[in-house]
Amino acid sequence: MTTRPLPLEGGETASIGVEPIRRLATTPRPTAGLFRWLRAHLTDEWSVVLLAVILSIAFYRWYAAHGLTVAFNDARSREMIARRVLMSRTPGLAQLGSTWLPLPGLLMLPLIWNDTLFRDGLAGSFPSMAAYVIAGLFMYRSARLVTDSRPAGWVAAGVLLLNPNVLYMQGTPMSEVPSLGAFVVSVYYALRLMRTYHALDVVKCASAVAAGTLIRYENWVLGMALVPVLAFAAWRRRGYELAEAWAILYSLLAFAGCAAWILYNTVIFHDPLLSFFYGQRDHKYYANTPGYLLPARHHAVMALKMYGLTVADTAGWVITALAALGFVLFLWRNHLRLTAQPAYVTLLPFGFYWLVLYMGVNTESLPQLGTGPYYNVRFGLLMIPALALFSGYLMTAGQVVARRVLPVALLAVILVVSAMNWMGGKSLVLREALHGYGGDTRQTDQVGAKWLSTHYHGGNILYTYVNDSSLMFYLLTEYGFPDRAFITDANGAQFTRALADPQRWVTWIVLNNGLGSSQDPLWGALHRQSAWRRYFVLRETFPWHHSTAGYNGTVQLFERRPATGPAARHADARAGQARPRASVVLRPLRAHGFDEASTNASLAIDNNLSTAWKTQWYLGDPVFGGLKRGSGLILDMGRTVRLSSVQVTFGPVPGADVQIKVGNSDPRSAAAVGAMTTVVRADNIGGTHTFTSRRWATGRYVLIWFTRLPPEAGDPGRYQAEIFNVILRGLTE
Question: Which residues constitute the domain of residue 484?
């Protein structure tokens, strides 16, 4: 207790005791400790990674839900290339082909074999998603290294991570984002090398370049451009000996991928330069292509205007303008200082693509230039690192207060512009995928695939990859056709035998006259022959258009006639021996429970993984609490089907013993269940499980029969089964 004077009348005072005020004890908030831990451990770099992961997953899910991850023809082709390395009739590394560099396909191999991940598109998109996260992290590091400024790092990372075109492409199987990631990592280690002069940074830089050279050819030019930069820096530091050592070390590592790819083409295709010309053995780019499809060839100003507009539309005019100011500031302050030279390498793609367009090696198309629908506007993506770096460098301008305000303002501008572009559907590359040359065969191929899936009753399909692999892609992903059903130009001797004697080896022929005999081996071999037509009948014709090359034509579907004599029956047997009869997705008419509630049975067949049918719950014993021997879900197919597989998505906890039964009578009693044929069973399962029948069971009713239930999550004494989705494959009778 303390005392304080109290004034009295007459000027006298008295002292009174005053009890000090005690602060009320406050209960710490539950999140306070978490926030303190995050502030102590969550660095800027981890924050960038976390943000990139969240953006990557969120945008992939959105685009996948809208069927856009494989909107590009090339996206479907790239997944098919990776898939055939493992799952085709003639698997092996030779299936990588000679059109594209191999690393994107190789990175898909760990997941592409899985049917579910292949159909969902995640197997093809995952390498791009990982590269997106890596690019964002190293973009932050590069800007931070150049400026020694956290705000600059965040602005640079924001320009890259929030770009709507990058956000779309990172959710696709395309090669642009992996190439961009390798490019950013290469530049970062080159920048760091200029400061550390450590041999390990030479190795890291060269390794990133080597990865890039196996993704896209632009990185071959980057690798060459870095040689004089690194050698000159080493010469200025310690003279000729260090320059020679660095040049040799860097070149051996950086160009190892180039040498391996040339060797691959030599061994597999007997032409070391084949891949440089997109697989054209005449070694000509766009041979006999009309001039209007190459508007920038030998027109320097048009090439400059075309690529300049592409870059500005890809990054946004606001970001482009800010980056231009940042570049001027960077050039004024640094000139040709050694530590700054790798930063100038980020501008290399502009010169490279200008030269490509000018030489007619490749082309672009922009509607605003009157050259037709969008095509190859993805070329602008490789300039994003330069625009990000120099936008970040702009944060070093001005007074201290301005430096604090400017990053926040610029990040807000980036976020607003990106959000407006994304919500308004203005992503440049997405417009190309949907309305440009790069995605214009989707509708025709989907129509053809749907027709063939409803009329196909087994047998091999003769098909070529040359025109477009999309029809085969949709048959595999949407209609459950097995990979080995197709004999294609990727199958070597098998394809050659089928061309020479199709009635002996195949049941269906997909003939496309769009490119003509000079480029399509299937059309070239069959369209002038008449002998094979005695054995096949034209079932359907679809129009086909590929505006990238300006070709129009038709897709013709031929089916082999039924066997009518000994020779024909022998040919029919040979064609059927090559593969088991193929299956398609079967749709149940209705579902109901057996000795279980039927109220929500339809939720198991609604193709919605967020809804489920459930059994009753039982206590103490996983065999229905000791009350009965089994129960299940009955699927009425509406007609007799031949069942090949059933894919069921159960609850996540394993422990269920399940049998798949097929019969022709609705199993409303235990006797009816006993009369059904058990075609396959599995024990202690959970999650998504595919039951594959070793024999083709026939019947109208399919019963998913539980003989043991899994425990509920968090309550091991309570047992209940769940079915979130069922996909059946087979043939209708």
Answer: 441-577
